[in-house]
Amino acid sequence: MTHNGTRTDGRKPNLRPSRVLLLSAVAAAWIGAMIEAEGSVTISPLSSRHLLRISVVNSDPEIISVLLRHIGTGSVSTKHGANKLCYVWSVQRQREVQEIARQCQQYSMKLQKVGV
Q: Total structural domains in the chain?
């Protein structure tokens, strides 16, 4: 990115603000614990930058629904696990990943590695 905010690769920068809601201490603790127990924080190298992604997989759709309602953003998909349907909540927009990590990192070692 150059000094005036344009990207050197010709693509437009994503300047939308984060849609992550402000979490209560209880919600941040629950979400951090869910990410620690049932989720993952992955780093995908893409050219010169690394993209972070947070995801939680569970067979109970209500758990995924609570995540989505409390955080206010993310996508939900399904996949087939061992003999059952699983639901996947994920966030990969970098501002939102960093905001979730900032609010929940004291409750998840996985999020502490994001380094915000």
A: 1
